[in-house]
Specification:
The chain is mostly helical. It has 14 helices and 2 strands.
Length: about 260
């Protein structure tokens, strides 16, 4: 596939990019995932696109994320995953301006914060995985040392909104690895020197049970049980990774995650 990607992307123009992006909405997982996304990832990781075409791709994918949800639900999650590959190229070799990077962080944070389709894998249809793919975009941004502090805070706010979402219809019980994916950008952002211990304590503190209806008698409703389940999985993912991390900046999250676990009913 890498050879095919090199051949396609070597002569790619905006029409080719747009055609490939449109495949991310295809209901056939073989076309959407195995063919289109694999080509996309190999092409971008092979450094085959110019900054001009990368900017075009970022604009097209950002427009998909800003559009209303489609019923099938494939397009946005795969656009977010494809956009994570665009963000990765800037992390590896900087080509975005500070303004462009800020806009991408705004787009990624808004998408992750607003995900309400919690479908994951469906037989014969494949993956949607909006929370996980939004987290993948957040991770690539979080790994970029040129990301502004304000944009790091935007990403953290979006992640917090999805740790234990209180959905209006039915709160999801994460079981497709979402908590671990949400944890990854948090662990990366912990390496930043400009987010101090007090800021991290405040962020984790906001995840503690509040006085809302779902927490008052958490074991008596699906909403409460989902909140316990999802928060436990996220806190465990942070705690294990931070405890084992050699970086003291990451290690400081371990006791905060432990406190979150102790605070759960």
């Amino acid at each position: 596939m890498k050879t095919l990607a090199a051949s396609i992307f070597a002569t790619a123009d905006e029409v080719v990019i747009d055609s490939l992006i449109s495949c991310f909405a295809n209901p056939d997982p073989t076309i959407r995932d195995k063919a289109a996304f694999t080509l996309w990832s190999d092409g971008l990781r092979g450094n085959h696109l110019s900054p001009a075409l990368l900017r075009h791709a970022a604009a097209r994918l950002s427009a998909v994320l800003a559009a209303p949800d489609d019923e099938a639900g494939f397009y946005k999650p795969f656009a977010a995953l494809a956009l994570s590959e665009v963000a990765r190229t800037d992390r590896v070799t900087s080509w975005m301006s500070d303004t462009e990077r800020h806009k991408l962080a705004e787009t990624g944070a808004a998408y992750l914060r607003d995900v309400t389709d919690y479908r994951g894998f469906t037989p014969d249809e494949g993956w949607r995985h909006g929370v996980a793919h939004g987290s993948d975009l957040a991770l690539q941004l979080a790994l970029n040392p040129r990301l502004a502090r304000a944009d790091a805070e935007r990403l953290l706010a979006a992640i917090a909104a999805q740790v234990a979402p209180d959905a209006s219809d039915a709160s999801p019980f994460y079981h497709y690895g979402e908590p671990a994916r949400l944890a990854r950008p948090v662990l990366s952002l912990a390496t930043r020197a400009d987010i101090d211990d007090a800021a991290w304590a405040a962020w984790f503190g906001a995840l503690h049970p509040d006085h809302g209806a779902r927490w008052r008698d958490a074991y008596a409703s699906d909403a409460g049980l989902a909140a316990i389940h999802n928060t436990t999985a996220f806190a465990n993912a942070i705690h294990v990774a931070a405890t084992e991390a050699p970086d003291p900046q990451i290690k400081r999250l371990a006791p905060l995650a432990a406190d979150l676990l102790k605070a759960l009913p």
